[in-house]
Amino acid sequence: MNTAYSVYGKNPVKAYAKVGLETKVLSASPEELLTIMLEAVQSCVIKARLYFQNGDIAKRGENISKAISIIKAGLIPSINEDAGEVAKNMILSFELMAQHLLNANMKQQEALLDTVETMLKDITDAWKTATATATANGK
């Protein structure tokens, strides 16, 4: 029996990438972790769009569900609601994204994925700018 096959499954490259991501997550600061989650949601939305266009309902649903899970279990809880108006607006934006994703899947409205992608890009860009500024200022 091939040991590498039994340990890493059919795709050792995927296993290597997974270990790399796990290492990145475990060593990430809270700010970096939020960026990782935003990028993961973006990846899921991009994949969902491809599966939408290819007619693969199961894979589309799987990626949309994963994106919603990251939003609901990762992004929203990572925001301190007591941090002010910006934090509250981020939470509301994440909740709206999750609702758009659900509707995109259930009502087969691919255009809602555009809305989510735009929202994600805006939030990700703003977040990266804010964290870069904070880092540059020594905070």
From TrEMBL:
* Matching CDD domains: FliS
**Which key words are in the record?**
Bacterial flagellum biogenesis, Cell projection, Chaperone, Cilium, Cytoplasm, Flagellum
Entry's InterPro entries? FliS, FliS_sf
The name this protein carries in UniProt is Flagellar secretion chaperone FliS
**Record PANTHER family:** FLAGELLAR SECRETION CHAPERONE FLIS
- What family is reported? Belongs to the FliS family.
Q: Which Pfam families match?
A: FliS
